[in-house]
Structures are given as C-alpha cells and as structure tokens.
Amino acid sequence: MKFKFTFWKLVFAIIMVLGGYATVIRFTQGLGASTNMSDQYPWGIWIGFDVLCGVMLAAGGFTLTGAVHILNVKRLEPIVRPTVLTAFAGYLLVSIALMYDLGRPYRIWHPLVMRNPHSVMFEVAMCVMCYTTVLALEFSPIVLERFNLHKPLKFIKAALIPLVILGCILSTLHQSSLGTMYLIMPEKLHPFWYSPLLPVFFFISAIAVGLAMTIFESSISSRVFGRQLELPIIQELGRILLVVLSVYAILRFEDLYHRGVLHQAFIPQYETYFFWLEIIMTAIAPILLLSIRKVRMSPGGLYFCAVLTVLGFITNRLNVSITGLEHWVGRHYLPSWTEFSVTASMVAGGFALFGLAVKYLPIFEDEHEHKPRLSAPQAVEPAAPLSSTTVVTDAGD
Amino acid sequence: MSKSLLYDATMCIGCKQCEAGCAEQNRLPYNDQIAAEQVTSDHKFTTVVAKQEKYMRRLCMHCQDPACASVCPVAALRKTPAGPVIYEEARCMGCRYCMVACPFAVPKYEWAKVLPKVQKCIMCPDRIAAGKQTACAEACPTGATKFGERDELIREAQERIRANPSNYVPHVFGVEEVGGTSVLMLSGIPFDQWNMRLSDLPSDPLPLYTYKVLSRIPDFIPLGGIVLGGVWWITHRRDEVAEAEAAEQASKEAGKKNGGAR
User: Fold this and answer.
1) How many Å lie between the alpha carbon of A159 and the closest alpha carbon of chain B?
2) CB B111 to CB A114 under 8 A?
3) How many angstroms separate the CA atoms of A346 and A93, rounded?
4) Hey, which residues does B77 pair with through a beta bridge?
5) Of chain A residues 11-50, which have a CB less than 8 A from chain B?
C-alpha cells in the first residue's frame, strides 16, 4: 500500500506531535505547569470544549437513531451508521480528554462506588458511562458484520429497539444535565447565560448540533471518500434543523425577555459581544438562511448553515463555561498552548478515527452492498473524481 | 447542635494569630512571606485581609447546606452534624466541581503537584470532637473569633448590633446567605467593600437549584421509556397495518384471478 503524504496528513502529524508533548508535560509536571487553569479558573477549555462541546457534537447518535428507529423516519436510515460512528468516537474522545482534566485520573471509576445522587456531575458520569456502552452496542453490528459473526449480530439486532430507547433517555438526561451543572452558580454566571432553562437549552441545542454535525459529516465524507452526497437526506435534515433552531431561538428570546435581561444586550460590554456572536451564529443567521428555499436545497448552503450552527453552539458552550464567569472572577482566562494542543489532538483524533472506521468497516450502506467490488484493488480509487459538484447538478432540483 | 464561629471584624486587630494557629494545626508552612499573602490558597486556609485600619477574615464559611458537598460526585466533601464541612482526600478524583460551585471560592487546588488534592479550612473537626474550640478561635487574643453553638452565637451577634448600632453594619453575615453558614460575621463597614457581595447571594441554599431538576430524573426514566416505546409501537404498527393491508389486497386480487381462471 502506498502512503501519500498530503497537506492534511502533515497538519495531523504536527497536531499529534504537539499533543503528545503536551501530554508528557501534563502527566509529569501536573495541571499547574501545563495549563492556565488556576484557583480562579478551576475549569478551562478541557471542560468547556472537550467535554461540553464534545458531548454536544456527538449528539447526532441519539438524534438519528431515535428518528429512524423510534419515529420510523426511514428516509434517514442510510446515514445512521456514520452518525453512530461519530457519536461513539466522540464519547471515547470525551473520556480520554477527561483523563487529562481530572487531577487524579486513575480514580475515574470512583463515582461507581462512592455515589452522591445529589451531584449533577455524578449523574452525568453515570449517564455518559452507560451511554458509551449503549453506543458500543449500537456500533457493534458494523464490526460483527465485517467479521461475519452472525450469532451475536442476531442478538444485538433483537435488542436494538430497547437499546435505542435507552440511548435516547440517557442522552436526554446527560445532555441537559451538562446545563444543570451550571445551575448551582446563580451568583457567578452572567445573566445572559444563567437561566433556569439551561438544561432545556442544552438539550435542544444538542439536537440541533446533532443534525448539523450529520449534515457536516455527510458533506465532508462525500468529498473525502468520493461518495455520492445523499442530498435528499441532508435536505430533510436541513428542514428539521430549521424547526429545531427556531424553537431554540424563540425559547432563548422569551427567557431573556422574562428575566428582564434583554436591555443588557444593548449595553456595550465584554459579555455583550460574545452574546451577540453566539446569538447571530445560533439563531439569527442559520434561521434566516435556512428559511430561504434555495439555500435549504443546495449542498453548499446546507453545509454552510451546518458549520455555522456547530460553531455557534461551540461559542455558546464556551460562553457558559468561560466568558460568563469572567466578570465574577474579575480577570480573563486564555488557554495555554498545552491546553490548545491537547484539545486539537482530540479533534484531530476524531477525524482520524472516523476515517479509519470508514476505511476498514462497512460504515456506508451502499459500500457494503457492493462488497465484492471492494475487494478489487482499484475499486476505492475511481470513486474519488466524483466530486460533490457533479452531484449538485443532477440533484439540484 | 452544631458548632459555629462568630467573627467580629470590629474587634479584630489584624495580629494574624489565627493564621499562625491554623497553619500549625493543619501542618502548613508559615512565615512572614506567607503572612503577607492576602488570599487563601492551598497552603493558607485563612487570611486576615486589611483595609487601612479595618480587618476581615476569610475562611471556609461551612455552609449549612454546602454547594461543594452537593456537587461532589464521589461525596468527598461532607457536612458533618457537628458543623464542619470536611474533605476525604482518598475519595477525590479531582474534578474541581466544588471549586466552581462554591459561592465563596473557598476550595483551592494543589496546582503545582502531580497528584493534587483540594485544600480548605475544615474547622478542626478533630478538636471539636475532642470538645475543644478551633485553633483560630483559641489563638485569637481579642475574642474577635469566637467558637460556640450556632444559635447562641447568632443571638449574641444580634445583641452586639443592638447594643452598639453605630459600630456595626446592621447585618449578621451567614444567618441567611445561601441558606445559612456555620461561620457568622459582623463588620463595621459594608460587606460589599470586602468583596462579599450580599446582593448576589440568594437566601436559598444553592443545592436547591440543581436538586429541583435532579429530583425529576427518577420519574423521567420510566416515563421516557413508556413514551418512546409507545411512539415506536405506533409508528411501527402503522407499517405493519399497511403491510397486512397490502398483503390482504394482493391475496384478494390473486383470489379473484384464480377464481376467474377457474
């Protein structure tokens, strides 16, 4: 097998080397030496991004399995596998990232035996643990199929519906609970972000991001793996995304209005800029754009809106976990290069895991249907020139 | 029956004996340099903040319903019936949620260590168990820090304000803040000037805010299961019915054809 050294592989290598170096510093010299966290900022981007955003970005798993298996939206079936893969990879990476952030990572199992049911963190820990197991089981048919293990496959398929239901319940619980975590600090978090509805916001936005991530990864995989873009499917997702974003935006506005903080949005201050950045990217821009039929029907428009939504809600999570606390603390926090490197290697690791899984496992339905052709050495390459633009023209209507 | 501390800032002379006593009790280093530090940290559990001739002690407030203990996923922090909020190092996995949750930013972390732990005032639980007062109260030469029963200390604090209203801000800090604390404070100047923002602190215990949501989970799980299961049953029932109807239709048509052929 030939190994081609491309630009992206170079970027990947650099990120991984930096991440590896940061890892050494983190585990030999401790959190103080490797991060800009302090008694004022006990949580930095390893919680704000790696955990909060990581879990949110993996929300497509329960959104799509729920839609296909529970709501019986059969049209979305072909993208369930890549979405479950994303979710599974996402939760694995969140768990790894957590090992960096915990002061004593080798005690990560403690919540299992030293329970405190009044702790939101305890609930999140249990849910994430259980849900990662559920995802592993939901993902397992792909591996079992690859190795032709039919007996366990039958077993898993019989248990699929209860598994999906369990996955949806667990996800609803911990996606919202990540917001509940911040309810304990009414005096610290800026009123733009502190709301009794935080759990609801976190949950709805997780669904939105789950849908947006699915559009994003469908678009990317069609380019990278030279597959035909499932345009009708992502158009459908775009429609649902528009509805979910609208519900979110209305609730967010109502909440700000009823808590009487709307006027603060027009006082020029540090928080206001981040607030508007978030609101424009999560509510105003994607809703306006997706309302335009032409945008909602075009692969480019959908891709743009999906990226906008994802970046918008990443901003939201960072606002809740960092920006919103800066006023109370009285000074700013900026992650150190080591924190950035570790986070970047988690993201890069996510892409790599996805790529490897697609290469070696029957992730995309159409590929495993044409399995015999895959065995031919050149079968993978010729697909590459089929760019998304050719798909656009014949599916443009 | 819970023990408390009453700190009266108007009686404090800023001698820092409480700091020294605390350091000795908790086997922490103490020297002039540390004495000059005005913030609590992993090596300084209490500090006397000076503002011209006025002083204010900072230490763990030992809340009646502590946020730190409620958020700890492994119950490493615990409020004891005797009053102190204690910390069991062997349980702690270092998530630092306690530090984020504490309304007084009390828990500190050993950032410089590879295997760190949380550090904070634990109100000398061993001394209290032995019937003694805390190290800081014992060290205090003026009685500014007084150890006793919470109810009695509240009554005494109120009495001091009533007897000498011009000396005090008419507020006993810790009676109502975040549901009450086991450290009570009196001050001659507004608490806001000590960066203890009264207006920000709710009188409800903070754990209530998360418990309102958490307490719904036991109901949510079976309910969610039933609803999702029900939705699944309906959506798939539709398919089954449609399939059965199609099959019936087909067999009817086949029957007709057969009949015609006969």
Assistant:
1) 13
2) no
3) 6
4) B87
5) 27-33, 37-40, 42-43
DSSP symbol at B167? T
**Residue numbers of A between 109 and 168 with CB closer than 8 Å to B:** 110-111, 114-123, 125, 161, 165-166, 168
**Tens digit of pLDDT at every position of chain B (262 positions):** 699 999 999 999 999 999 999 999 999 999 999 999 999 999 999 999 998 889 999 999 999 999 999 999 999 999 999 999 999 999 999 999 999 999 999 999 999 999 999 999 999 999 999 999 999 999 999 999 999 999 999 999 999 999 999 999 999 999 999 999 999 999 999 988 887 776 778 899 999 999 999 999 999 999 999 999 999 999 988 888 988 999 988 888 887 766 555 4
Question: What is the ipTM for the molecules in this complex?
Answer: 0.89
Query: Cβ B73–A121 below 8 Å, yes or no?
Result: yes
Q: If contacts are CB pairs under 8 Å, which of residues 91-120 in chain A contact chain B? A: 101-105, 107-108, 110-111, 114-120
CA distance A83 to chain B (A): 20
Alpha helices (H) in chain B, listed in sequence order: 17-25, 32-36, 67-71, 97-101, 125-129, 135-139, 150-163, 207-214, 217-261
Q: What is the largest CA-CA distance in chain B?
A: 117
**Separation between Cα atoms, residue A46 and residue B110, nearest integer Å:** 18
Compute the distance between CA of residue B192 and CA of residue B243 in angstroms, rounded to an integer.
72
How would you classify the pairing of strands B54-58 and B47-51? antiparallel
Residues of chain A neighbouring B103 (CB-CB closer than 8 A):
185, 187-188
Residues 6+ apart with CB under 8 A from A13: none
d(CA A20, CA A344): 11
B50 by DSSP, 3-state: which?
Answer: strand
Across the interface, of A116, A172, A184, the residue whose CB is closest to B73 is: A116
Q: Which residues of A228-266 are buried (b: 16+ CB within 10 A; e: fewer)?
A: ebbbebbbbbbebbbebbbebbeebeebbeeeebeeeee
- How crowded is residue B108: how many other Cβ atoms within 10 Å of its Cβ? 22
- As a whole number of Å, the CA-based R_g of chain A is 21
Contact, B74 vs B100, CB < 8 A?
Answer: no
Question: CB neighbours (10 Å) of residue B95?
Answer: 30
∠ Cα B235 A244 A263 (to 5°) = 150
pTM of the model: 0.89
Contact A169 B95 (CB under 8 A): no
Q: A191 CB near a chain B CB, below 8 Å?
A: no
Structure tokens at B243: 């399939």
> Alpha helix locations (H) across A78-159?
80-101, 110-113, 120-146, 150-158
